[in-house]
Amino acid sequence: MNARNEDRLKRLLQEALPRIEGEPEPGRDLWPAVLRRLDAQPAAPPWFDWALLAGLVGFVAFFPASIPVFLYYL
Amino acid sequence: MKPHPYLRAYLAGVFVPTLVLPLLLTFVILRFVLQIPVPVEQALIFPMAVVPLLWGLWNLLWLWSAPRTHLPLGMHGAVLPFLLMPCGAWLATSLGVLAIGSQGVTWFQVCQVPYTLIAPMFLAAVAGYYLIWKYIVGFLNRVLGIA
């Protein structure tokens, strides 16, 4: 590609792409928010999951014969 | 995006069933040591070969379908027993490990499970699968960079 074609391609691309209005950078520093998100603790499991786990443990405790069947499917 | 996401998904999926395998092997060793007349090893084809394969493929399927369905991983995993239970029962029946009777099913001609207990067992399996897939497989997917 010679220099003339390159200039033409550049001009065409500039004409085709919309011009960015205003300030291209964000208005505030985003890095502290990224750090906060990285440091945030993972959310605790919801009560529904605890209830399911309790039900599962209770079921296995009442019917120990189900343990080999569960192992068969794991 | 890290390379080979489907391979990562498969490996994350087979992790949990692979951990259960040594436990199942303990049953076989106990049978031979204690000379228990129950052919446990015949039933092990399903948990040792089929279950890990299906878990891996199921996680792969989730990775492929999640952008379209937006189904949470726990719910996706909870569907798997609907596929595994009939497959496992069919294979166990074919191998003569499981007998289907009028009152219930009989494992190894010794352990009887009445039909009234099968429905709660199935629900417990669905709950267990939901929790395992949501927390363990989800954690592995995050560690392997595919979630």
Structure write-up:
The complex is a heterodimer of chains A (74) and B (147). Chain A is an all-alpha fold. Chain A has a domain at 48-74. Chain A has helices spanning 3-16, 31-39, 47-62, 66-72. Chain A is elongated, with a radius of gyration of 30 Å. The model of chain A has no long low-confidence stretch (mean pLDDT 83). Chain B is globular. The N and C termini of chain B lie close together (10 Å). Chain B has helices spanning 5-34, 40-43, 45-69, 73-94, 115-143; strands at residues 98-100, 104-107, 111-114. The longest helix of chain B is centred in the N-terminal third of the chain and has 30 residues, at 5-34. Helices cover 75% and strands 7% of the residues of chain B. In chain B, strands 1-2-3 form a 3-stranded antiparallel beta sheet. Chain B contains 5 helices and 3 strands, in the order ααααβββα. Chain B has 147 residues and is mainly alpha-helical. Chains A and B meet through helix 3 and helix 4 of A and helix 1, helix 3, helix 4 and helix 5 of B.
For this entry, give a set of tags.
heterodimer; A: 74 residues; mainly alpha; 0% strand; B: 147 residues; 3 strands
Mean pLDDT score of chain B: 86
The share of residues in helices of chain A is 55-70%
Note the gap between the termini of chain A. Answer: 61 Å
* Alpha-carbon distance between the two ends of chain B: 10 Å
Contiguous runs where pLDDT drops below 50 for at least 5 residues of chain B: none
Number of helices of chain A: 4
Low-pLDDT residue intervals, each spanning 5 or more residues of chain A: none
Summarize the structure.
The complex is a heterodimer of chains A (74) and B (147). Chain A is mainly α. Chain A is built from 4 helices and no strands.
